[in-house]
Amino acid sequence: MKVSKVSQRRRLLWALLLLILLFAALVVRLAYVQIGKGAELSAKAEESWRRNIPFTAERGEILDRNGEALVTNISTPTIMAIPVQIKEPDHTARTLASLLDMNEADVKKIITKRGSMVERLKPGGRKITMELAQKIRDLKLPGIVVAEDNMRYYPFGGLAAHILGFTGIDNQGLTGTEKMFDDKLRGLNGSISYLSDAGGRLMPGSSEKYMKPRDGLNLELTIDKSIQSIMERELDQAMVKYQANASWAIAMNPKNGEILAMASRPGYSPGKYKEFAPEIYNRNLPIWMTYEPGSTFKIITLAAALEEGKVNLKNEHFFDPGAVEVSGARLRCWKKGGHGSQTFMEVVQNSCNPGFVALGQRLGKETLFQYIRDFGFGTKTGVDLIGEGNGILFKLSNVGPVELATTAFGQGVSVTPIQQVAAVSAAINGGKLYQPHIAKAWVHPETGEVIEEIKPEPVRQVVSENTSMQVREALESVVAKGTGRPAFIDGYRVGGKTGTAQKVINGRYSSTEHIVSFIGFAPADDPQIVVYTAVDNPKGIQFGGVVAAPIVQNILEDALHYMQVPQRKDQLPRVYKYGETPTVTVPNLIGATVQDLYEDLNMNFMLAKSGTGDTVINQAPKPGSRVERGSTIRIYMGKGSSED
Known about the structure:
Layout: H1 5-36, H2 38-49, E1 50-55, E2 62-63, E3 69-75, E4 78-81, H3 89-100, H4 104-111, E5 119-120, H5 130-139, E6 144-147, E7 150-153, H6 161-164, H7 176-180, H8 182-186, E8 190-195, E9 209-211, E10 218-221, H9 225-242, E11 246-252, E12 259-265, H10 278-281, H11 285-288, H12 298-307, E13 317-320, E14 323-326, E15 329-332, E16 340-343, H13 344-349, H14 353-363, H15 365-374, H16 401-408, H17 417-428, E17 432-435, E18 439-443, E19 450-453, E20 457-461, H18 465-481, E21 495-505, E22 508-522, E23 529-536, H19 544-562, E24 583-585, H20 594-600, E25 606-610, E26 615-620, E27 626-628, E28 632-638
Parallel strand pairs: 2-10, 25-28
Antiparallel strand pairs: 1-8, 2-3, 3-7, 4-5, 4-6, 8-9, 10-18, 11-12, 11-23, 13-16, 14-15, 17-20, 18-19, 21-22, 22-23, 24-27, 26-28
């Protein structure tokens, strides 16, 4: 049957319309793709073509209070692979495995990873030496890139290790200030990127794009490197001398809570932390360790009693028979037979337990424990370091007469070293408790501009200035006349308190193991620095005055000279016991004749003569120097003038 021309035309028209609709749809789709989705699809295409080689930002340096770098960075290249560009995987894997001390199969797995743009060859290819990096560059292996990386460098080795902490393989802070302030120290990484085809070849007309890394901020600490060095030297010597289990120390400015030094032993090297046991580098003993403080805690009882008007140190007497009975418990004084009749100033000097039991009883448990908490015990100080302990106090409902008595002289409570330093600082600085802190300022790494300064944070006023003055006076007498005499420094007014506490082992007090301590400060009338030191289980005599006080003396003396605190002559004279050698002043012998020396020189010194002549023309030590009685003065003889 014939199809009419009309039907043919109709069919052709419908076909034409259909083609027009299809073409229109294609045009609309192309327009949508080109205009509506063009930017998005171009970005996706570029993303699939783009190769990024990361550049690690440098972590901010950590500086001491004087701007000296305690932690800095050194360049350490890292090997990276671009899998699509690698032409001979077996050869490449075999070559790199031998150089990077890695398993060949592991290397091959990394460099043939499908869909990967850039892969780090880890662990062997991370943070390698410059020499090894150059050797790998010289091999010109396709798809293998030497990228810029860095690692932490500690110019003073293990100095301030527990404060500084260390970082991991990816430059992330793991301990210490590195972890505490990781977000500001870390910075933002950069990269070099370029467009590449599927074969890894640079695409024609494309160029490299460099995004500069943004380095982290520099952190300035309150720590003083010189005082830190002095402290660590003394702890090292103490560990050797006393063969102790551990030792720790803190130095702080009592006027604002700035920590000037902090250290503990055993120590470690942050750059080689993997060579040390985790319990060494994970435990910052000055803020983590909790233990019974012993007699250093008596400072708190003393301050509370003075503030409440419960004692007159100079005019009120106390008789110590050697022990006191409290609810059936016999609490002994360290001196067998007791100290007899003494003023309460002498109770403090002699660290007399029965005398402090009496002060605790006068205060009562509510008042004493309120002061203990006001001084910061029982809660964290808030120091800006990780791992701080709380300490342990009796619940007030569980405090009976015996608990009140033992707490008054520092037994039965558990405290941290940083709590003790903060509390004693409040007792001697005019009565104001400060939050201890280690961070001082954030500094821009390029301009040196101070971005943020950390201000001292006062917590509360605990006692009055008048009470604080009396505490300072009493503790100065402890060092001049009492149990703290080994901390006496000629030419400086020093106050302090000893502490000897039995260790609790398996729930019982040990009769052979003690933690001995001493806290000292100077100048006693205007404290610039307070130093606390404790030694865990020293071999031999275990008394704070014998072991810890000389350590604090050495730290304080060198620190005071370094801080250029002037010497003075208005200090309380030291009381010397049998066997101790007094300190005397070297006289001026220059101009004296031999005849004068024999007639006038007393028996305080030995003389050693050099040179010829009949007149002293020079001497060593210089006139006015302070030396032990019996020391040798070397005199240099010459011809005197006629006027002499």
